[in-house]
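>> received
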Amino acid sequence: MRPGSELLVRLLEKYERSAAFGQPGPWRQDVIVRLDAREFPAAFEPEGREALADLRAGAEDLLRAGAARIVRHRGYADGLPREARLGPGEVERAYALAAGFEFVPLAEALRDLATLVESLRAAPAPEWMAAYLDRVASGIARADVSALGLQRERFKRERGDVRDALTAAVALAPGASGWERVISERIFGQSKRLAAVRALVLEILLRADPRWDGVSRDDAGDVLEAYGVRRKAGLIRCAGRGTMEVAGYAYELEHFAPTAHLPEAWADAWVEAIVRGTAACITTIENETPFLAYVEEAKGPGGLGERGELVIYTAGFPSPSLLDALSAARIRKPALDFRHWGDADVGGLRIWWLIRSRLGCPVALYRTRAEWLEATIDDGRVSRLEPGERASLRRLRDQLLEDPSAAAPDVVDAVRLIDVVLRRGCKAEQERW
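>> returned
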């Protein structure tokens, strides 16, 4: 960089982070970069005499070019540049000068993103994604990219990834079906691109899709699977009794000990075993350790079979294929009872509501109920509720009360559980049982 280039970049980057960005003058305060050891440590080291001279010369160059104003030292360093300042009168000239070394203005990056959003809004999308794109577009007009989960500086630095992530999120919103690399090839023409921007895609979907409202990022690792994106072969993990017929062979479910790991390709045979078998109750369990402990507590698959129960591990939010299989079993065997054992937090309740909504029938809360949480909180074995989780639970509570099933016993129980969480300000994982 030429002398003054680094200082000019610092001024413009600070301006682009500030509340003054895009605002006409007068500003409440100039953008200020001090020429001191804190801002430019290398220039103030014993061997940095040449760098310091270049820095000060660069400040004088910016002053002469009308790209900055200078505040000078008094006293021992009288007359030497102490601060470079950028105000409304210098912004245009500063950007013009920065264009000479390929500095990309934030306004340009925002315009490119606005153009992309406009094209994405023209494509068919679920209502929630259309509403999200409206929020993104509204934010861009104010130079606010917080709807993407980013600050301006990171957005500008990763703008290419952000564009691709938003494109992928919109493409996935209606649902997809296939392996991650295959879907990536369809969207980008590059099989590895979706994996490269996966974290940003996940962040956008968590912010856009209301079913993830308040779900912890720690619990959202497999959210893309809910949109049909597969990174590993799908499994149905369960325990109980039933006979599956696959490729002319019969497999007894209770012979898979301690639990069965069935390929998703066996889903139809698994559903057939449920329909023809003795299972009268299906229990879904959110986390792996409680699932394994529950099977052990029941004396294994045989014990579950004796009491007419099939237990399924959902691994957090259940995959679309598992929900499809459970829905098929419910339709073909309407007498089945369903219940869910999960965490007493936003994620656990949203998993329960997703299962209930997809099955279209009552799903009783099992073990994680209001009275259990009260006792658990009294024992002091809980975590405090975060403000964002509190707001998400209130929205879920309103959603449940407005639903046509609001008077159903399982929904009433869920509202009672939410009320305890909100009133006591605590949450608990199912492992506390």
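>> The two ends are 62 Å apart (CA to CA).
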